[in-house]
Amino acid sequence: MLLLILGLLLFLGVHSLGYAAPALRASAVSRVGPAAWKGIYAVLSIAGFLLILKGYATARGDAVLLYAPPLWTRHVAALLTLPAFVLLVAAYLPGTWVKARFGHPMLLATKLWALAHLLANGMLHDLLLFGSFLAWAVVGYIVSRRRDRAAGIRRMHAGWMRDALTIVIGVALWAGFALHLHGRWIGVAPFG
Q1: Rounded Cα–Cα distance for residues 128 and 157 (Å)
Q2: Are 128 and 1 in contact (CB under 8 A)?
Q3: Which of 3, 57, 81, 189 sits 20 to 30 Å CA-CA off 133?
Q4: How far is CA 91 from the centre of its chain?
Q5: What are phi and psi of 188, to 5 degrees?
Q6: Per-residue pLDDT tens listing for the chain (192 residues)
Q7: What global pTM score does this model have?
Q8: What CA–CA distance (Å, rounded) separates 109 from 113?
Q9: Nearest C-alpha neighbor of 11 from the set 128, 148, 143
Q10: Which of 144, 67, 76 is CA-nearest to residue 115?
């Protein structure tokens, strides 16, 4: 469990610098330079992610049950992740209505993903992983939206074709992951 906690602290800590400690982040970037900062950020993020993977896998072998969710929550979770995939695509496709309206679709996707997994999983390591990501995304979204409003940031909608493309790509990615890759990579098939 310690590896999981360390991984979460490292990964989410690095990803929180931009909104939790912007002056510290700006100071680090000015000290080492933008390219070096991106390299350090990437290395720390990857290290945190690998610790999360190893810690979660280890914790699964010594699981502590907190609650036993009903079987149907797995299907609800699988369906809740569908809009999460669409939001994930919207985060990287400029000019979507979602990005123009909500500003930070990656954080919204993370919230849905984490909530879906909390509904369907009742182990302590699940609560640590998904609960941490949910709390991080909630705080990150609130802070990011306030910062955007204070700075007068407005994102433009480039048209409904971008939205249609976002939905098509998001649904295709979700179907591929939910129906095939989740079972292979995670060991749990959401629909069977």
Answers
A1: 37
A2: yes
A3: 189
A4: 11
A5: -130, 125
A6: 999 999 999 999 999 998 888 888 999 999 999 999 999 999 999 999 999 999 999 999 989 999 999 999 988 998 999 999 999 999 999 999 999 999 999 999 999 999 999 999 999 999 999 999 999 999 999 999 999 999 999 999 999 999 999 999 999 999 999 999 998 998 888 877
A7: 0.92
A8: 6
A9: 128
A10: 76
End-to-end alpha carbon distance in the chain: 28
Tokens of 93: 């496709």
Domain boundaries of the chain, sorted by first residue: 1-62, 64-192
Q: What type of residue sits at position 120?
A: A
Let me know: does 41 contact 10? Beta carbons within 8 Å.
Answer: no
Q: Which two tokens stand for residue 156?
A: 């433009």
What is the residue type of 79?
A: L
Residue whose C-alpha is closest to residue 22's, from 131, 140, 138: 140
Structure tokens, 165: 């493309």
Place of tokens 């993020």: 45
**In whole angstroms, how large is the CA radius of gyration of the chain?**
18
Encoding tokens for residue 151? Answer: 């700075």
Q: Find, among 110, 104, 106, the residue nearest to 88 by Cα.
A: 106
